[in-house]
Design a protein that fits this description.
Layout (H helix, E strand, L loop, with lengths): L5 E11 L2 E11 L8 E4 L4 E10 L4 E7 L5 E8 L16 E6 L4 E4 L1
Antiparallel strand pairs: 1-2, 1-4, 3-8, 4-7, 5-6
């Protein structure tokens, strides 16, 4: 139903050669809204993101990563209860990930 809330748990880490920073957040996302996290990233840093929808709707959310130049690096519907290799719905909730190397320094949106 439209009034159901989705709970999105987002964990992401920015890893640079001499320092590793990990942040994990859990928050509510209303249907048909867009909530973003912003992180300053330096060029050539390895960025790892994990997404897990824990309840609401079809355990799905549209996930997008945008670079400082506003270029969309990744965008897709995430279904936390679908096995990506088989396409089958499972009884387990699985986190999904997207990893990349920053193509330029600046603020990335997740």
């Amino acid at each position: 139903t439209m009034n159901k809330l989705l709970a999105l748990c987002v964990a992401f880490a920015v890893v640079v050669p001499t320092l590793a920073a990990f942040e994990s957040l859990q928050f509510q996302v209303e249907p048909k809204t867009e909530d973003c996290l912003y992180q300053e990233v330096t060029v050539n840093s390895k960025v790892k993101t994990n997404v897990l929808v824990t309840r609401g709707g079809k355990l799905d959310i549209k996930y997008k990563v945008t670079g400082p130049d506003r270029v969309v690096l990744y965008e897709r519907m995430i279904f936390s209860n679908v096995n990506d290799q088989t396409g089958q719905v499972t009884s387990k909730i699985m986190k999904k990930h997207f990893d990349f190397v920053a193509h330029q320094s600046g603020v990335y949106a997740f």
